[in-house]
Amino acid sequence: MTAPPDDCLARNEWICGEYLSTRRDILLDAVGQHLQLTVLSVLIGLAIALPLAVVARRWGWAAGPVLAVTTVLYTIPSLAMFSLLLPVYGLSAALVVAGLVLYSLTLLVRNILAGLRAVPEDTRQAARGMGYGPVRLLLTVELPLALPAAMAGLRIATVSAVSLATVGAIVGFGGLGNLIYAGMNTYFKAQVLTASVLCVVIAVAADLLLLGIQWLITPWTRARRG
């Protein structure tokens, strides 16, 4: 009778410290790519969503079309989305980033717009009475008061981007998704579990980080609760 191997990699166990020690560089590269895809897509999405929400708030007739288009984009399955973008971006990281940006728009636009709409009209009127123009009113009154709702949308969009980035593995740019995809094809248990757990850790850490930033930049919400 042959004795079982004493190496957890050879035994293909789900939890294997040997995998962490021998694949450290691969894991770090995958985490780095995953973070790059997530951060870049969320920042670009925020840069697009903010003016869209402001336009929808300023001109009420634009809200319907803006929300409709972003909602339709969010309903497109991820594989179909990447396939539609393939002729434009080819097999590249830009393809994944573009898809994640489009998915983030509905979450960001809706929450930013909700925050802007929640600003009390008497607050706007008081600012106008003090001589605030449209731009100053937006930057110093409306956007700060809309921050809680906007940050809630940003948190959801970021966590969603962490999750959806794994689908980029189908084009070779999925960060930790590459490891999950390869591990599932070869039934490499330790790789699948480790990469999946790291995705969860990144999502939770990002959410907590943004929650902490929100706590710091919205002190008036704490005073209100108190």
Automatic annotation (TrEMBL):
InterPro entries: ABC_transp_perm/SBD (IPR051204), MetI-like (IPR000515), MetI-like_sf (IPR035906). Signal peptide: none annotated. Residues 31-210 form the ABC transmembrane type-1 domain. The chain crosses the membrane at residues 35-54, 66-86, 92-113, 134-154, 160-181, 193-217. Keywords: Membrane, Transmembrane, Transmembrane helix, Transport. It is a multi-pass membrane protein. Coiled coil: none annotated. CDD domains: TM_PBP2. It is found in: Cell membrane; Membrane. Belongs to the binding-protein-dependent transport system permease family. PANTHER family: GLYCINE BETAINE/L-PROLINE TRANSPORT SYSTEM PERMEASE PROTEIN PROW, OSMOPROTECTANT IMPORT PERMEASE PROTEIN OSMW. This is ABC transporter permease. It comes from Streptomyces tauricus.
